[in-house]
Amino acid sequence: MVNLEAAEKQTITSFWASVDPAAQGENALQRLLYCYPWSRRYFAKFGDLSTISAIRKNSHVRAHGHKVLSAVGDCIGHLGDIKGHLAQLSKLHCETLHVDPANFCLLGKNITICMASHFGVTFTPEVQATFEKLVTTVAAALSSEYH
Amino acid sequence: MVLWDAAEKKVIASVWAKVDIEADGFQALLRTLHVYPWTKRYFSHFGAMSTLKDIESNPKVRAHGRKVMAAVGDAISHMDNIKGHLSQLSQLHSDKLHVDPANFELLGNNIVIVLAVKLGNDAFTPEVQATFQKLVAVISSALTREYH
Questions:
Q1: CB A21: neighbour CB atoms within 10 A?
Q2: Burial of B42 from C-beta contacts in 10 A (0-12 / 13-18 / 19+)
Q3: Who among A52, A121, A123 is closest to B127 (CB)?
Q4: How does pLDDT run across B115-135, given as a tens digit for each residue?
Q5: Which of B30, B130, B133 has its CB closest to that of A125?
Q6: B75 with B85: CB under 8 angstroms?
Q7: Residue B79 pLDDT greater than 90, yes or no
Q8: How confident is the model at residue A25, as a pLDDT?
């Protein structure tokens, strides 16, 4: 189990208050789909994702980005047991969605880059360290029910 | 052999023109040392680095960040043969400095993050991100190449 210290919990909670899960979720997913093109395989039902323009215009990308980043935000309300909180979602990704868990780290990386580009210098080294701990924990929790 | 198209070269040139070798190099190294604390092992001769404040006020961190970022800039000037250009530095990192090459990727990630912070979302587009991720991956790979 990963423990965030009180100061880290405080940092991530107050940082998250400024996050817009719709806008930043869309942005993070766009970055993943463009920079790591194999990730598009999971979203064949989204339609055209072949170019950056197509990805930007795709309303499914916006909707799904929102969904994913909201789910990350929910984890902040369960910092004491992210693994337990995400157990069902982990089973879903393994058994139904068949997602290679390496992609959770890639999405985490793109969420981090999205935050850096939106928040600029407010995305301080302390915020970055805490944030990376969060996305790493989320990625590990999502992998935990894989078999 | 790594190929760069005209669009990628243009992106790299225009972003790099905005880079402050000292300030941005410092930030990239600082973030690496703080977010991935085991990397401090490589710099025990730098003195105090146990807290973020220590790292921020450590002049050796600043100097080394500058050195590393200047080396990235040099690699950009030799974009058509980064592998050859970095071969000595690769030997140095393997034979003398004994750096685990996984760490090149960590520093590369932080160079990308520093650029994202600096340029903001409008300028640090997915296309710019992809180009710089390619650059830092090519540099990491070149630095790893002479390892044995």
A1: 19
A2: middle
A3: A52
A4: 999 999 999 999 999 999 999
A5: B30
A6: yes
A7: yes
A8: 97
* A112–B121 C-beta distance less than 8 A: no
Q: Which of B8, B2, B12, B6 is nearest to B115 (CA)?
A: B12
The full 3-state SS of B14-48, as one line of letters, equals HHHCCCCHHHHHHHHHHHHHHHCHHHHHHHHHHCC
Averaged pLDDT of chain B: 96
Q: CA nearest A57: which of A34, A38, A37?
A: A34
What CA–CA distance (Å, rounded) separates A50 from A28? 17
- Using the Cβ of A128 and the Cβ atoms of chain B, whether some distance falls under 8 Å is answered with yes
B73 to chain A nearest CA, in Å?
A: 22
Q: A92 in helix, strand or coil? A: helix
A53/B contact by beta carbon, under 8 A: no
B88 min Cα distance to partner chain A (Å): 30
pLDDT at B1: 77
Contact status of B104 with chain A (Cβ, < 8 Å): no
Mean pLDDT on B51-75? 97
Q: Which amino acid is at B128?
A: V
| Structure confidence by residue, pLDDT tens digits, A35-84 | 999 999 999 999 999 999 999 999 999 999 999 999 999 999 999 899 99
ipTM of the complex: 0.91
Question: pTM for the complete prediction?
Answer: 0.94
The token pair at A3 is: 């423990």
Of A17, A28, A35, A36, give the one whose Cα is nearest residue A115: A28
